[in-house]
Amino acid sequence: MPLGKMAPEYTAVYLATTFRPGQSSFVHEHSGPEAWFILSGEQCLETPDGPLWGQAGQGVTVRGDLPMVVQATGQEIRRTFALILHDAAKPGSRRVDHWKPQGLCRK
C-alpha cells in the first residue's frame, strides 16, 4: 500500500482489541494506513468505499485518511492485533463527523 508523500518521521501504534458480537467502534480515521490480523470471530469495516468483511485467520489493510467504523459480526468474540503507521507530526486516530455509516455491515 503506498504511503503517499513521505514524512520525515513515522510512529507505529500497535493495538490488541476485543469486541463482543454486535459491538462497534465510533466513526474515526487514521492519518496513515492500518493493518490488522483477525485472531477470532469476524468483523465488518464500513467505509465510504463500501464494507470490508474479514474473519479469523485473515488480514485486512486500509489506507490512511479513510473514515471507518468497525463492527464485530457473527457469534464469536472478535480479537485482533493491529498496526497503524502514521506521520509522527499527526495524530494516529481521530473521531470524524464528516461521514456517517449507512449500516452496510448488518447481515
Short structural summary:
Helix content is 0%, strand content 50%.
Tell me what you see in this structure:
By secondary structure, the chain is mostly beta strands. It has one domain: Jelly Rolls, CATH 2.60.120.10. 0% of the residues lie in helices and 50% in strands. The protein is built from no helices and nine strands. Strands 1-8-3-6 form a four-stranded antiparallel sheet, with no helix packed on it. Strands 5-4-7 form a three-stranded antiparallel sheet, with no helix packed on it. A two-stranded antiparallel ribbon has the order 2-9.
Please describe the topology of this protein.
Blueprint: E1 10-19, E2 28-30, E3 34-40, E4 42-47, E5 50-55, E6 59-62, E7 69-73, E8 78-87, E9 93-95
- Which CATH architecture would you pick? Sandwich
Approximate strand percentage: over 45%
Judged by helices, strands and strand pairing, the structural class is: mainly beta
Q: What is the succession of H and E elements?
A: EEEEEEEEE
Question: Could you estimate the helical fraction of the residues in percent?
Answer: under 10%
What strand order characterises the main sheet? 1-8-3-6
Low-pLDDT segments: none
- Give the CA-CA distance, first to last residue: 29 Å
Q: Can you tell me the CATH class?
A: Mainly Beta
Q: Number of helical runs?
A: 0
Number of domains: 1
Might you state the CATH topology name? Answer: Jelly Rolls
Q: Can you tell me the overall shape?
A: globular
The counted number of beta strands is 9
Mean pLDDT over the full residue set: 93
Within CATH, the superfamily carries the name Jelly Rolls
Outline the biggest β-sheet. Answer: 4 strands, antiparallel
Radius of gyration: 14 Å
